[in-house]
Structures are given as structure tokens and as C-alpha cells.
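Subject: DUF1849 family protein

B.,
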Amino acid sequence: MTLSICPPARIRLSAAAAVLAGMTAFAVTGSLASAAELAPHRAIYDLELGEASDALSISALTGRMAYEVSGSVCDGYSVNFRFMTDMRDEDGGSQVTDLRSSSHESGSADAFQFLSETFVDRKLIEETRGSANREKNGEKSVELKVPAAKTFPISSKALFPTEHIKALIEAAKAGQHFFTADIFDGSETGDKVFTTTAVIGASEQETAVETGPEKAARAALAGKTYWPVTVAYFEPGIGATGEQEPSYQLSFLLYENGISRKMTLDYGDFTIKAQLNNLEVRTGEPCTN
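Prediction pasted inline below.
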């Protein structure tokens, strides 16, 4: 049989950030000195199947995720990401999905460039390329080149990916436990602004472990504060209110320097677990202005 599974092209590993639901908006600071600073790093995660509905007939899933961040709070951040899975069904059929993306976001979150490609069994099925900018009047607009050339406005309150992570960390540090926002990350067809809600748990401090596959990675994070976070993603126009079900949810441990581990991606019919098995934390470039 053919696997009737939506490929993970809609996965947004950048954490959700936003306005506290039902309360006063959480303002993202424009000051580089007070904004959260992300650690340049390269992280490799092993992927495996968590739970799956019998209706999907998934017997196994393996894969790997690579996430690399470079840059600084002054010069902006570049992100290269690859998410590759091999799903197998009960009849021995398989489907290999390979999502590749790269982006750059200015330190002030005024400009965002993005490119993403999704391959299924080595065939390109989706490509998105474009840029988004904050205009002088504060409004935001997107110039999409692929899959179709067009320019359109988006909400001035919509956050870009790195801006999301910074805002979520600042919210966690401030003791906020519920956090919601519209986000634009250029994924899928490149013309969607998604609504997200985040639940932030109590802070903890990382301690090095003596054994286990995450031993080396956790040693590099020893002493860092982290929070358990669950982010729900909703299709545009649905909203994060009432009884609406999210398109999917992402749960993870978020560290104060922007690194994440112990992820679970929940699509409703199945889940994918991501375990951090290799982490290289790099020295950030100093600000030159």
C-alpha cells in the first residue's frame, strides 16, 4: 500500500512566540542589548516513531534532523535545517521525505529571507523562496518568488522565526506560562501566517549526566536554564480559541541560549520523537557596532 501520510513539510522547529492569550501583549524589545542572544551551534537529532494510529499502518520510522545556527544578535542569524525521514508501512512499502531549508533574519527582525525544498522519494514536490520586510511605517510585506511571484502584506504583529525564539525565551524568563502569536516563517506555499499558542513550564537548570545517548550534548549545556514548552500550530483563519484542534503540536525543552532537545512532534495520527545525539556550540561573532 502507499503511505497516506502528510510529509513533514509544515514542521516549524523555530519555537512559537507571541502575545499572552487573553491578556496584555508581550512586547518584543527592539533593543539589541536587552534581547535574548542565541548561541551559534550545530545540533543533530535522531528521529523515531512515537505513537501511530492503526489507520495509518505505519510500522516504523527512522530519520535524522540537522539544525545549524550562525551569526549574532547584531548581524542577524542564518539557519540551515534538514529533516529526513524514512517511513515504512506494514506491507513493506516505504516513503523517504527530505525537507531542506535555509534562511537569514536581520538582528533587528526587519528583514527575513527564506528558501525551502521538500523531496519525497528524491522527487521535488514543493519549493518556496522569497523574502519579507518590515517597512518604515511598521507594516510588513512579503515578496514571494517561488512557487508563484507575488507581493502581499502580512500583519505587522506577525513574528519572523528567530524573533519568535527570542520572544519566547524572554517570556519564559519573565515567568509567563501562556504565550500566543501569529508567525510567518515562509513554509509551505510561503503565503501563510500561522496562529500559535505556547504553554511554558517551570524553569529548571541543566546538570550533566553520566550515561545515556545525550551525555555529551547535555554536558555542553550544563548550568543553562531551560523550560519545557509545548507549541500548538493552527491553520490561518482557524485561530487558537474554542474547541479547534491544532494542525500539530511541538513539545521540547528550550534552553536560554536557544538550543532545544527532547522534542516530540504530534500530528494527531502519529508522533515523531527527536533525540539530541550531537551538539557543537560555537563562539559567536562579536558585535562590530
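DSSP finds two helices and 15 strands in the chain.

T.
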